Amino acid sequence: MAIDLNAKVPSGPLAQKWDTHRFEMKLVNPANKRKYKVLVVGSGLAGASAAASLAELGYQVNCYCFQDSPRRAHSIAAQGGINAAKNYQNDGDSIWRLFYDTIKGGDFRAREANVYRLAQISVNIIDQCVAQGVPFAREYGGTLSNRSFGGAQVSRTFYARGQTGQQLLLGAYQALEKEIAKGTVRMFPRTEMLDLVVVDGRARGIVVRDLVTGAIDTHLADAVLLATGGYGNVFYLSTNAKGSNATAIWRAHKRGAAFANPCYTQIHPTCIPQSGEYQSKLTLMSESLRNDGRVWVPKAKGDTRAPDQIPDAERDYYLERKYPSYGNLSPRDIASRAAKEVCDEGRGVGPGGLGVYLDFRDAIQRVGKDKVEERYGNLFEMYQRITDEDPYRVPMRIYPAVHYTMGGLWVDYNLMSTIPGLFVLGEANFSDHGANRLGASALMQGLADGYFVIPYTLGDYLARSAGMAPVKADVPEVKATEAEVRAHNDRLLGIKGKRTVSSIHRELGKVMWDKCGMAREKSGLESALGSIPALREEFWRNVTVPGSGVELNQSLEHAGRTADFLELGELMCRDALHREESCGGHFRVEHQEAGEAKRDDARFCYVGAWEYTGAGKAPALVKEPLAFENVHLATRSYK
Amino acid sequence: MGGTGSGKPMNLTLHVWRQAGPGAAGAMRTYAATDVSPDMSFLEMLDVVNEGLVARGEPPIAFDHDCREGICGSCGMMINGQAHGPWKATTTCQLHMRAFSDGDEIVVEPWRAAPFPVIKDLVVDRAAFDRIIQAGGYVSVNTGNAVDGNAVPVPKTDADAAMDAAACIGCGACVAACPNGSASLFTAAKITHLGHLPQGQPERHRRALRMVTQMDLEHFGGCSLFGECQQACPKEISIDAISRMNRDFVVASVMQAEERQVAGAG
Which one of A352, B90, B103, B211 is at 20 to 30 Å from B220 when CA atoms are compared? Predict the structure, then answer.
């Protein structure tokens, strides 16, 4: 039984689709909204904004996060900014241009109608955040400041120093706390979703574990929203927070939600290189640094001179050389691959030759140290704390690292997955970034989904489902799902083998990075499809999880998440193997032309969504063809 | 950034607070941390110790952590009696082991404050902070109500001052460092952030009144301007915020008293 991937894109001209749809959608009577209960899993930009906005409308909302407070969701770590087509700079920006840049940046693998809506809504997001008291950077005249970001030739990125994600999240968090105070949202911190309850084909609840007491419970509702972020931690080392995980979306996938484009992962070019085997995560240095920093490596292989001893003539500013019109602001996938290339040639710098310089010498000469400090001071401090080197004097060393996952659960134009009543928001869905996300667009998408899309589309779903019978806690589906969660945890605790969860997770990460990272090849992917199941088998035979299930047990939490990564990693490799083209963050070594990615629109201009068919069975690929009616499918060029 | 800077691995002795659960009695336990690279973060050092404990079948040391970039505010512990350890303006996750020398003994304890009860080992319950925000740490503007972002100019100095205070990560170091266990710096940071912006004006006094009242209800101590909070704050939030909070609170109290009189006279 193949899943039906009907994207439900409204008819009519692109620019009118969302307006038309908003009128055509059904509404829930204000007095009836309080009769509906909605569960929001995750409290980052998408989850917190959705939970607050839905509560304001009158729905009964429960919100869940695994952290001790909703304010700590990983959106908080976004540094650089948020895009919006305000055109405050009078530099040629427009909704159409933001739409086009995003479609092109995504290497023509996203749905036109979704991306256009995102660009339209972007302007409302800035207004909403300003009204909440988000302290965006300002000019002396009191107007909002903008900066440039990769993949764009206009200045449309709004920012709050190097802490834009933090400030936007605190805005959404405060809106959420305002509703919690009113009693319209019930918050469940330190609570992890471990399964989805599906009754009569609809999402009707979730099974959760209280991370403090270990109690497992089922919460029932009329709709479930997953806003649980991306799955970059399948690589073990990534810029994601340690707790970021795929468990909610993966278990929903196993209950019937199609998983789209799992192989589309973003490797961010400007991260601090790994320093040792004990490394627990990688730290991003904001892409905004590329506004003023120049990326280079020595021209000669194995040049071990200190950077200030290498004269300009012997430096290769390779991004400026290869991509003169975008230069250091080339999109992330291109900049990352170029860094890998020069390191593979033996021209990398720092320990192991896995690094390139990001040099502020010229910027300091041009605008002065004070100005550079004002722009990036906190990032420079962070760099120095981690590396013990002063980037005002010595160029930063950077290397690409896993940062974001464009793939995720498949959703239609209404953000609904292939399970009716299950909506997916933010990084957890696949919807807007195609095969590569532009900088400062993740914050935009998370808030667009939460503040301005789901309040409309959820209402439409509920209004059309009027008369849906309430679910009782004793129906077989509810009892069975909860029993499966308990059995899964008991099994993890009962293995009592020899290997720690971390050691297996780390090993999985290495396979993923080597075989399904920046460059992918048929032979490597096939070997990963052999080694990952073997590692998974070892995990279930030989892992050790200390402690019990009825207490705070961080090892058990990590074990459950790793078990899911061990399944998801295999699907990512399978997807990467099937997509015999290079597009965006997905680079297949076999498919290139003069060193640049070679897309194959004739064969692969579609969304690849995978359907779970049961344990040990091959998943089924279902395709959603992508129709480009408004933009010309061009070869991406940033030269 | 201090420390040895030698790059050589170190052997350290840790004295760590272990407590099995919220009601359980806790005790200090001693662990050896061997072969510690100065380039490790403090939490990576604990990770390595924990891997050893798990391999020996012992329960690992529980501690809160998430982003490990110094921004989520999850991590936090007393390290040799200092909140977040010896480096200024640095969270525990960003503290690196080059701050220590070979042979050092390091005492690691959870935040100690009555409103932050210990859940397990180094993990404490900071829900009181969320309840202080619930009392008024927001602008009451529903989604969809906003005017254009540039409709109300905000002087750059105000925006910068608001951002300085808004940088608070809610980690709780200020409370842990304060001899009175006061949450004044945390509460004042939010009052100052919103109070510097035009969008925060309509609720400015109500906010101060309610947030300060909630802080008291949570049994945080009063502020005696000791200043240790400012020293411990990983985001270097200035204690000036507290005088601003006090001023807003006094004005709000007077206004409330006047309103009552007017209402009573009517």
Answer: B90
pLDDT tens string A423-440? 999 999 999 999 999 999
Tokens at residue B119, please?
């859940």
Q: What span, in angstroms and rounded, lies between the C-alpha atoms of A164 and A180?
A: 24
- pLDDT tens figures, A443-478: 999 999 999 999 999 999 999 998 888 999 999 999
**Beta strands A499-500 and A543-544: pairing type?**
parallel
How many whole angstroms separate alpha carbon A145 and alpha carbon B160?
12
* Closest chain A residue to the Cα of B121, Cα to Cα: A552
Beta strands in A559-611 (DSSP E): 592-593, 596-597, 606-611
Could you give the dihedral angle defined by the CA atoms of residues A107, A111, A116 and A117, in that order, rounded to the nearest 10 degrees?
-140
Q: What percent of chain A has pLDDT over 70?
A: 100
Task: Considering only the beta carbons, identify the residue of B127, B156, B167 that sits closest to A138.
Answer: B156
Q: Which domains does chain B have, with CATH numbers?
A: 10-120 (3.10.20.30), 127-265 (1.10.1060.10)
> B-contacting residues of A 500-559, CB under 8 Å?
500, 502-503, 544, 546-547, 551-552, 554-555
Domains and CATH numbers, chain A: 267-402 (3.90.700.10), 476-605 (1.20.58.100)
Q: What is the pLDDT of residues A131-144, one digit of tens each?
A: 999 999 999 999 99
- Reported confidence tier of residue B3, pLDDT bands at 50, 70, 90: very low
Nearest chain B residue (CA) to A213: B21
Q: What is the DSSP string of A315-330?
A: EE-HHHHH-TTTGGG-
The partner residue sitting opposite B130, judged by closest CB among A69, A167, A241, is A69
Which residue out of A188, A242, A505 would a mutagenesis test of the B interface target, given it has the greatest number of B Cβ atoms within 10 Å?
A242
Q: Do A128 and B144 count as a contact with CB atoms less than 8 A apart?
A: yes
DSSP string, A5-16: -------S-GGG
Positive or negative torsion for Cα B214, B219, B221, B222:
positive
Most B CBs within 10 Å, among A87, A166, A542, to test the B interface: A166
From CA B92, how far away is CA B109, in angstroms rounded? Answer: 12
| Parallel, antiparallel or unpaired: strands A37-41 and A216-220 | unpaired
- Residue B4: the pLDDT is 39
State the pLDDT at residue B5.
43
Residue A180 contacts B where some CB pair is shorter than 8 Å: yes
Which residues on chain A are in Cβ contact (under 8 Å) with B150?
88, 143-144
- Please judge whether A278 and B54 are an interchain contact, meaning their C-beta atoms are less than 8 angstroms apart: no
Q: Which residues have a Cβ under 8 Å from the Cβ of B43 and sit 6 or more positions away? A: A280, B63, B65, B68, B75, B92, B93
- Chain B residue closest in CA terms to A49: B143
d(CA B116, CA B131): 13
User: What are the residue numbers of the active site of A?
Assistant: 332
Q: Which of B138, B160, B213, B214 to mutate to test the interface with A (most CBs of A within 10 A)?
A: B138
Does A136 touch chain B if contact means CB atoms closer than 8 Å? yes
- Check: CB of residue A185 under 8 Å from CB of residue A176: yes
- How far from chain centre, in Å, is Cα A227? 10
Residue identified by tokens 């920006």 is A93
- Rounded to a whole number of angstroms, the distance from the CA of A560 to the nearest CA of chain B is 16
pLDDT tens-digit readout, B84-123 = 999 999 999 999 999 999 999 999 999 999 999 999 999 9
CB contact under 8 A, A178 and B138: yes
Judged on CB neighbours under 10 Å (0-12, 13-18, 19+), B45 is buried
Residue A109: CB atoms within 10 Å = 28
ipTM of model over 0.95: yes
